[in-house]
Amino acid sequence: MGKRSRTKGRHFEQEFATILRERFGDDSKDRGVRRGIQSRGGGKEAADVTCDALPWAHFECMHGKKPNIRAKLMQAEADVLDPMASAVVAVAVVKFDREEPIVAMRLSDWLNLVKDAYPGG
Fold first, then answer.
1. Is the CB of residue 6 less than 8 Å from the CB of residue 64?
2. How confident is the model at residue 31 (pLDDT cuts 50, 70, 90)?
3. Longest dimension (CA), the chain
4. pLDDT in tens, 103-119
5. Over 60: is that where the pLDDT of 30 sits?
6. Domain range holding 22?
7. DSSP H or E segment with residue 63
């Protein structure tokens, strides 16, 4: 991956972290939002962005002209399977150039979130 692509990805991760901070706040210890430790080692990695208000989510971000949503979700799922990972739901946050970001997760994970949020529904 070229420097330009890495820079674009880093900027989108920072943008997504800012969006989470604005929505959930970042003024207390239990609401922290951080970019993960980045590595190019090819092994299991930390989430691109973490949010203490959403500890169940493992966010992987991608920004590009034709980003591969499925590949990014599969990367997040592989990281979630790591026994050291604290998150349980893989979430891909993907931004096509000049468009609003898309959030992707498995339907079963989404249904579990909805069930927890609306137990009587």
1. no
2. low
3. 49
4. 999 999 999 888 877 87
5. no
6. 3-117
7. strand 57-64
The CATH number of the domain holding residue 81 is 3.40.1350
Please, what's the b/e burial string for 81-105 (b: 16 or more CB within 10 A of its CB; e: otherwise)? eeeebebebbbbbbbeeeeebeebb
Q: Which two tokens stand for residue 51?
A: 């949010």
What CA–CA distance (Å, rounded) separates 114 from 47? Answer: 23
Neighbours of 52 (CB within 10 A): 15
Number of independent structural domains in the chain: 1
Angle at 53 between CA 52 and CA 59, to 5 degrees: 70
Whether the pLDDT of residue 74 is over 70: the answer is: yes
| Pure H helices in 25-119 | 69-80, 107-117
Rounded to whole angstroms, the Cα distance separating 50 from 39 reads 15
